[in-house]
Write a structure and sequence with these properties.
Helices cover 35% and strands 27% of the residues. By secondary structure, it is an alpha/beta fold. The model has no long low-confidence stretch (mean pLDDT 88).
Length: 235
């Protein structure tokens, strides 16, 4: 069950869950606000809670809005692209029977068959990022699943506007944001731990925080690095 509140012009998603306490969060990259609340809690009570927190919400949205953002990509020669936290310059070459991407010391080389439409460059690079992320994510998720003693059935990669990852403990699955391939590897490692940890503790209670502290003492620093951006351009 879910609902949407409008508090002072700020839309707030309300998600009812099997939890004991209400939880408020503001998510990059758009500053979307979410309240997770117990099933028994009345919507009017949640509205009063949201009103009392509107100042905090707007301050955090302001921080997200002020964060660095990537310029909208045009996939042109010598355009900057990030791979695992490092900046590379795009080089475009024609030739070959099929598209290919190669990562050099300072360049990200995109080879396209002659006369291939330019609008396919984004698609080719996105699939390359997806393969990069899938390979590393498979290792990271398997590591944390083993350490936390849980079973992982599978994971998916997709573009996500308001989350770096999500999990479904009942189905034993995880979703990861494709943009993670542009950030340092430790950011992926943190998100992998965060989502696998929800298989053990389904909410963000003190028990969840203690679990993160035990397995990754510096997770807050990594989380802040991830949320500092540069965030993807808003489409």
């Amino acid at each position: 069950m879910s609902a949407v509140l409008d508090i002072g012009g700020v839309p707030i998603d309300v998600i009812f869950k099997d939890i004991k306490n209400v939880h408020l969060s503001v998510h990059p990259p758009t500053g979307r606000v979410r309240i997770s609340a117990p099933h028994r809690m009345a919507l009017d009570t949640i509205r009063l809670f949201a009103v009392s927190k509107i100042g905090w919400i707007k301050r955090h949205q302001g921080k997200i809005t002020a964060q660095a953002r990537e310029n909208r990509r045009e996939y042109l020669e010598r355009e900057s692209h990030y791979v695992w936290g490092r900046r590379y310059l795009l080089t475009i070459k024609e030739g070959g029977a099929k598209p290919a991407v190669a990562l050099g010391h300072r360049s990200l080389e995109l080879r396209m068959p002659k006369d291939t439409p330019a609008d396919l460059r984004e698609e080719v690079l996105s699939e390359w990022y997806r393969a990069e992320l899938r390979e590393r994510a498979n290792t990271a998720l398997a590591k944390w699943a083993k350490r936390l003693g849980v079973s992982l059935r599978g994971f998916a990669i997709q573009r996500m506007k308001t989350k770096w990852g999500s999990s479904n403990p009942a189905r034993r699955t995880v979703r990861l944001n494709l943009e993670l391939a542009k950030f340092p590897p430790e950011c992926l490692d943190y998100v992998a731990l965060h989502e696998i940890a929800h298989f053990v503790v389904p909410n963000h209670s003190e028990g969840f925080v203690e679990l993160l502290d035990r397995h990754m003492p510096g997770w807050r620093t990594v989380r802040d690095r991830l949320n500092e951006g540069p965030l993807p351009a808003i489409s």
